[in-house]
Design brief:
The complex is a heterodimer of chains A (236) and B (283). Chain A is α/β, with parallel strands linked by helices and 236 residues long. Helices cover 35% and strands 24% of the residues of chain A. Chain A has nine helices and nine strands. In chain A, the strands form two sheets. Chain A has a six-stranded mixed sheet with strand order 5-6-7-3-8-9, with helices on both faces. Chain A has a three-stranded antiparallel sheet with strand order 2-1-4, with helices on one face. The C terminus of chain A is likely disordered. Chain B has 13 helices and no strands. Chain B is globular and about 60 Å long. The N and C termini of chain B lie far apart (41 Å). Chain B is mainly α. Classes of the chains: A alpha/beta (236), B mainly alpha (283). The interface between A and B is medium-sized, with 34 and 32 residues.
Chain lengths: 236, 283
């Protein structure tokens, strides 16, 4: 059974559809890259997958014991976060908020989980530092560690490398690849970067005027990659 | 020194001085707790905005002829606070613009209504007292002090119990929602507490002071401290100590209480800012 399966999905705001008849599925261990031009509805799709917004029609089925709020989300940074006084430990620990239930405070296990995920992301030595004083790459690692606290199965990354320099971008991608290959975490990433999508992902969902869903090899052999590159994709 | 002490002891014989100290400290404590999240959410001016709303509401209840305007004022202010805060980071109109709109709008409508329908002869006097705190901090009754104590206890308890959720929703609302935190409910709860604190504090200490109490301690603490917890704790301590020293100075110097507290807050902010510059320079 698929981890996440979307059937005949129509998405949009206030009844106006941006995407119609979207069909795709994500299985455990997949690395799916969602690509598309600005305004093609990538953000709307993310919000719908996370359950922050309802689809206009169609349905999303979750399988393999994936709970409602068990997608680890790495959002794009907000303006508020730029001058927010928060230590790295506080930010990562806030990833455990879904486990709180009715408890007001984090338990010992929550703190241990946060510590393990900081270790995994190589940011243990930063745990007392202030989030706003970190470099862009370090901030993304902190947010990734937070996302990992919220899930054991699947992470959803919204433009994980935007604003990072090439070296840090490569590090970020290999970190994500490692999570996918060695930790068995399903990765869904949204990106402009078609080159990186072709390098790391095993499935591609392209949304926009023409919708494509399939494996990376089908995407390449079908000539979609070149077509979309010509049409003004940022990568390749 | 002993002369100062004698004078203080003498003044503390009066119940209204003790009441002022208790109420001032508690309101300073509550507003500093809320101040951190409000400043970070770009709602620094909400104290001012909501007090204008309360002014408009008072005008409406005066026109309608209500003898006790408190329930209506509180209700309208709570609704406005919810409208402002519950939409959170996903509004079409930014926080500061929304606050400005509601604040100016309520002020204009309130003044218009008062002008059209007022039976009072001293209109400008009424307006002035309503805006800058009709009952000043030195004329509190015992009931108001008790109310203040109960309210502060409730706010402090709620803040401690919801501390982790307040942090989560303030830092990243989208992530919080994706992780299953009920952000709408959290924002509404925060809005209600803010509105109640502001309406009560406005009657007790005036709207000028309440705005300052929300903004200054939080901003001062953010100069020096790097984690949410330390900023919150520091801001509470700062706010309480500034209020206490402000009240004591005003007793000794015979200065107006509210503006003295604000002056102390400004001095502390300047001090913290300079310290942070010196520390930043050494790094």
């Amino acid at each position: 059974m698929a981890l996440i399966k979307c059937e005949n999905l129509s998405l949009g705001y206030e009844g106006r559809a941006i995407i119609e008849n979207l069909n795709f599925e994500v299985n455990s261990g997949n690395y799916l890259c969602i690509v598309g031009e600005n305004g093609s509805g990538k953000s709307t799709l993310i919000k719908t997958l996370l359950g922050l917004q309802n689809p206009i029609s169609g349905k999303i089925t979750k399988g393999d014991g994936l709970l409602k709020n068990e997608i680890g989300y790495l959002p794009q940074q907000t303006v508020v976060q730029k001058d927010f006084p928060a230590s790295v430990r506080e930010v990562v620990l806030s990833g455990c908020q879904g486990r709180l239930g009715l408890r007001p405070f984090y338990s010992y296990e929550d703190k241990a989980l946060a510590a393990r995920n900081m270790e995994k992301m190589g940011i243990t030595q930063l745990s007392g530092r202030c989030y706003r004083e970190l470099s862009g790459g370090q901030q993304q690692r902190v947010l990734l560690a937070r996302a990992l606290c919220a899930t054991r199965k699947v992470i959803l990354l919204d433009e994980p490398v935007s604003g990072l320099d090439p070296k840090v971008t490569a590090e970020m991608y290999s970190l994500i690849e490692n999570l996918n290959k060695n930790e068995g975490i399903t990765v869904i990433t949204v990106s402009h970067d078609i080159a990186a999508a072709l390098k790391y992902a095993d499935h591609i969902l392209h949304i926009g005027k023409d919708v494509f869903f399939g494996t990376k090899d089908e995407y390449v052999s079908g000539g979609h990659a070149e077509y979309f590159a010509k049409e003004g994709g940022d990568g390749v | 020194m002993s002369a100062v002490l004698t004078k203080l002891v003498e003044y503390f014989q009066f119940p209204f001085v003790r009441y002022a100290l208790i109420a001032g400290t508690l309101i300073a404590f509550c507003s500093s707790l809320l101040g951190v999240t409000l400043v970070l959410r770009r709602f620094s001016f909400i104290g001012d905005g909501l007090s204008h709303v309360a002014f408009g509401a008072m005008a409406v209840s005066a026109v309608v002829g209500l003898t006790n305007d408190m329930p209506l004022t509180l209700a309208i202010t709570v609704i406005c606070a919810i409208l402002l805060l519950r939409t959170g980071q996903s509004t079409k109109i930014n926080g500061d613009a929304a606050v400005a709109m509601i604040s100016v709008g309520a002020l204009a409508i309130g003044y218009l209504l008062m002008n059209l329908f007022s039976k009072s002869s001293n209109l400008s006097g009424d307006v002035c007292t309503t805006l800058f705190g009709s009952t000043s901090i030195l004329t509190l009754s015992k009931f108001e002090v008790v109310l203040c104590i109960v309210l502060s206890a409730v706010v402090a308890a709620a803040f401690i119990l919801f501390y982790n959720r307040v942090f989560a929703v303030t830092f990243d609302e989208n992530f919080a929602a994706s992780a299953g935190t009920r952000t709408g409910a959290s924002n509404t709860a925060i809005a209600i507490i803010v509105a109640v604190v502001i309406v009560l504090a406005m009657n007790l200490v005036g709207s000028l002071l309440i705005s300052a109490l929300i903004i200054f301690p939080a901003l001062s603490a953010m100069r020096l401290f790097k984690s949410f917890r330390s900023v919150t704790v520091c801001s509470a301590i700062l706010s309480v100590s500034c209020s206490v020293s402000g009240i004591l100075i005003s007793i000794l110097g015979g200065t107006p209480v509210g503006s003295t507290i604000v002056a102390v807050d400004i001095a502390v902010f300047a001090m913290f800012h300079i310290i942070s510059l010196i520390k930043g320079g050494r790094k």
